[in-house]
Amino acid sequence: MSVMSANAFGSNPSHPDQRFWDCSIVGCSRSAAIDLGGCERCSSHFCVRHVDSTLHPCSKDPLDDDEWSAGREDELRKLRQMIKVDQLVAVASAARGGMECSLKLDDTEQVRMGGMHVHFPVHFIDGTVWLARVPRHTNFQSFSDQLTDEILLSECATLKWLEGVKLPAPKLGGYGLKGDPGNKVGVAFMLIECLPCNPFDRASATEDQKRKVFSQLGDLLTTLSQHPFDRIGSLTIDGDGSLRLGTVIGDRTGTLSRLGPFKDAAQYYVAWAEEYLRLVADGQLFGAFPVTAYLMFRYLRELGSQSLGPVETTQLDEGPFYLKHADDKGDHIMVDDEFNVTGVIDWSFAKAVPAYEAFGPSLVTADLGCLLDGKVGLNPDDLLLAELLEEKAHPYAHFARYGDRVRRFLFGPGTGMSPTEEEAVVIFKGIVETCGEQIGSWDEWRHNHLVEWSGDATLRRLTDSK
């Protein structure tokens, strides 16, 4: 007899009081664990209590290559069945004045699957290639249709805005929302320009190649600094086609509900930390060590209520704000064989943020090993980009040398990486030290803050449940 409940495939949250998924076990009212509870073998979600229980007998070993490939092909097969090719081709053709084009969904050599999207090439008779960027609707960890539409609409708005400020990015040819009755394609989709070349790989680049790319990145950041916003939020498209800054659509991990918009930085950073506190308290994140994780995000909430930027620039907490890529690890930058930047891709979850976040040290120059090992200070790549921004007289170049408080703050104790408790503690110590404090004994710090925050009812509940 199946132990899966009817609500095993619950929708993703549309506001902070909802959960991503329910536990699939019949009779369990707990939230599924976002980071630990997904099973690729049975395509189900489980709470921390049941993911390793006898009620979930699947092997916990990672999928082997054959199993992974079979799962990928099954997902693609289901997605292909949803797509009305003739309708999608008609939309693409109409966007280019009726020019003939073709789309082959089963061309496995050209179809590309990423973490959130599948890309199908659209070929026009003049040689132009577009991409049909389709959310992974048939993956068991897909977002709800409503949230998928909002994320896609925000990315479309961002691409339109970027085209207006002449920052190189894929041009938007058209889009359709899953919830739009006028969309006959069967899925949500974007039609975007296919940028030539390959993602920038910082690890394999020579120093000269890296300097060349970072110099061009400095030009792009300078362009963004010339187009401020008056609030913190993500772009969207209104019914009349105009662009508007709305709620923060999410973060790079894809685990946050929509927040804001905000008029000052403290509101934004506190809301970010409070949303993680809610997810931890509900068992959706860091379920293997909820008390420790709660203490960490409680500390981050206190930190976020202060200015994360330099003391002398606290006025920037209230703006202006600037657009920032949400997942700028470096592979979002497309380069040709001569390391000329051809454009910046993957603008999901982009948002306007304070200047010291937008132009301070980011993932694009981060040393992941230092972040994970809690080693503080800027690295050579951070300083290289800072030097290049200064050469270009970027108005906020000084933030690139200020330190990486914001980068570490938003990285948290390993958000999106499913660390062990020991690993999270090491990462967290780096955050605290970067902010000018020291954690000598972790056990002592933990005990002292359990006492200091003993009036927190949620913390007491988590402590009592252990």
Automatic annotation (TrEMBL):
Gene3D superfamilies: AN1-like Zinc finger (4.10.1110.10). Transmembrane segments: none annotated. It comes from the Eukaryota. Residues 150-356 form the Aminoglycoside phosphotransferase domain. Pfam families: APH (PF01636). PANTHER family: AMINOGLYCOSIDE PHOSPHOTRANSFERASE DOMAIN-CONTAINING PROTEIN (PTHR21310:SF15), AMINOGLYCOSIDE PHOSPHOTRANSFERASE-RELATED-RELATED (PTHR21310). This is Aminoglycoside phosphotransferase domain-containing protein. The lineage of its organism: Eukaryota, Fungi, Dikarya, Ascomycota, Pezizomycotina.
